[in-house]
Amino acid sequence: MEKISVLLAVYKPNRTFFRKQLDSINKQTYKNIELIVMDDSDDREEFNQISSIINEHITNIDYKVYANECNIGSNRTFEKLTQIADGDYFAYCDQDDIWEEYKIETLVNEIKKENAVVCYSDLSVIDEDDQQISDSFKKMSKRLNHVYGDKQYSYFLRRNSITGCTMLIHGDIAKQSLPFPKNNEYVHDHWLTLYASCKGRVAYVEKPLIRYRIHSNNQIGAKVLDGIGNKKDYIEKKLYIEKAKIDFVKSSSIGNENNDIEKEIKAFEDFVSTRLAFFQNKNLSNTIAFLKLLKLDPTLILFELLVNISPNLMSNKVIAFSKK
What is the pLDDT of residues 215-255, one digit of tens each? Predict the structure, then answer.
């Protein structure tokens, strides 16, 4: 029976939510599980309380609890957890959701059946009182497209459809993906997804295996155009971030010895640089090159065309409307 390492990064969790998350891990039908927890609070009293709660609620599986010497953020904390873990598969975990008791067992069966390197599922959505808001994350997030199968790296270079808490990934693949991006060009789950898609098949379970909690201190993934209110914001927080993603991918081992992946990386680089050039200088050649991108992503290119050619007030309204 393959060993599953559940990797849980915590930072001053709501105690009630945290207890329910731990209980759901403790009740998993799949039995060969270890829980590895990393506290990122940089607070000795907080660490002691977290350790006590874990000891109280985790009774069916082995566990280890560590503390960072200083607050380093979620990406680097999950990176440290990935370095420590030694399971055959890794399951990444948030601090405030509820796992269905058959979550791990279902994912293990599917990843083996599909001969995949990573597997994930849909989620249901609950509120602070455990009341269901939606029976499907996919239904709730209309822009979300759950992608799976072989050679999906061209999609994952730009977007992510795998919520980290639903992921089960081969341990050796996760370790090969290190280091994670230090400046959050990619959040840990997006980077793991992209790397895994370059190594093999992505599998998917349509059934929701997690009750994902929405509350005042979290978000359902990254909101569309979050923190962007005008054209300047869009350039700095959207286009420059995409350029940083390309720079990180090019500095990694992704694409080495695989011409198809290298071509997709180059295509993404051209896609980003052409759009950025159009925003920086709307001369004729940049505009023509930009309009040629319509066939690649009509919705995005039309949106960016409106944002860039409109007067500032109208441009701001286009951005605000797109957030709805």
Answer: 766 645 446 688 899 999 999 999 999 999 999 999 888 87
Topology, domain 4-213: Spore Coat Polysaccharide Biosynthesis Protein SpsA; Chain A (3.90.550)
**Beta strand 33-39 with 132-134: parallel, antiparallel or unpaired?**
unpaired
The neighbouring-strand residues paired with 169 are: 90, 118
pLDDT band at 143 (very low <50, low <70, confident <90, very high): confident
- Burial class from Cβ neighbours inside 10 Å (0-12, 13-18, 19+) for residue 163 reads buried
pLDDT tens-digit series, residues 307-323: 999 999 999 999 998 87
Structural domain boundaries in the chain: 4-213, 231-322
pLDDT tens for residues 196-218? Answer: 999 999 999 999 999 999 876 66
Judge whether 123 and 146 are in contact, CB under 8 Å: no
Looking at beta carbons, which pairs linking 191-196 to residues 24 or more positions away fall under 8 Å? 192/92, 192/118, 192/164, 192/167, 193/118, 193/156, 193/160, 193/161, 193/162, 193/167, 194/153, 194/156, 194/157, 194/160, 194/249, 194/254, 195/252, 195/254, 196/117, 196/118, 196/169, 196/170
Q: What number of other Cβ atoms are within 10 A of residue 1's Cβ? A: 8
- The predicted structure's pLDDT at residue 221: 45
CB-CB neighbours of 126 under 10 Å: 19
Q: Burial level of 295, CB count in 10 A (0-12/13-18/19+)?
A: exposed
